[in-house]
Specification:
The chain is mainly alpha-helical. It has a single domain, classed as RNA polymerase sigma factor, region 2, helix turn helix motif (Rna Polymerase Sigma Factor, Chain: A, Orthogonal Bundle). Helices cover 60% and strands 0% of the residues. It has eight helices and no strands. Helix 6 runs antiparallel to helix 7. The longest helix is centred in the last third of the chain and has 23 residues. The chain is globular. It starts with 13 loop residues before the first helix and ends in a 15-residue tail after the last helix.
Length: 215
């Protein structure tokens, strides 16, 4: 999936300020819905089997719940997702150290339950985190926009922006002019940016950004 045409602006603090309240179900459900899949995917990238990645999600959520009790917002420290990235990365490092001290089990290589699967050390962890964040925002935003556009407009957008197909080829496939393909792509992207900004407005701050000061 191509992300180059979609920007991901910083946003305001609404739900961040609500997380310290463990009884705020809406805020916590929103947090889990957005960041749960990101944490899971990141753990998989860093070498966890699927079952272990699911455990990592639950462990990190528990850790975040505890830290939110002493929540202190500091706009000079950066974005919320940057703080969460640090929490997740540190947790995975600690978990790996604990696992390395245990006896290793040899499992069927054909299964998904491979223990100590090695991550690609050439991958930048921060880049992986940001990519998964963008992917999750797109995953949440795109279905809400589909009904707003005709089949041809949506297909032109999907083929060019998401599948990175040459616009001239898409124009030929859909019986559209090249200019119409660009217009279709631009129209959907404009709405997509609005939707993503709305989603992010629940979690990040405008201006310099926001973060939770580690306790």
């Amino acid at each position: 999936m191509a992300f180059n045409d979609v920007t991901f602006p910083n946003t305001r603090l609404t739900l961040i300020h609500r997380l310290p309240d463990p009884m705020d179900r809406e805020a916590w459900e929103s947090f889990v819905d957005l960041y749960g899949p990101i944490i899971f995917a990141f753990a998989r990238h860093r070498g966890c089997a699927a079952c272990d990645a699911a455990d990592v999600v639950q462990e990190v959520l528990t850790k975040v719940t505890r830290r939110m009790r002493t929540f202190e917002f500091d706009p000079a420290k950066g974005r919320f997702r940057t703080w969460l990235y640090t929490v997740v990365k540190t947790h995975l490092i600690d978990r790996s150290r604990r696992e390395s001290a245990r006896p290793h089990l040899v499992m069927d290589a054909g299964t998904d339950q491979i223990i100590n699967q090695r991550q690609d050390e050439s991958e930048d962890p921060n880049e992986i985190w940001e990519t998964e964040y963008r992917r999750q925002l797109l995953h949440r935003a795109l279905p809400t926009l589909r009904a707003q556009f005709s089949h041809k407009t949506w297909t032109a957008f999907r083929r060019t922006a998401l599948e990175d197909v040459d616009p001239a080829q898409v124009a030929s496939e859909l019986g559209m002019t090249l200019g119409s393909v660009y217009v279709a792509k631009s129209r959907v992207l404009a709405k997509l940016r609005e939707k993503i900004a709305l989603l992010e407005s629940e979690w990040e701050s405008t201006g310099k950004g926001a973060a939770v000061r580690p306790s």
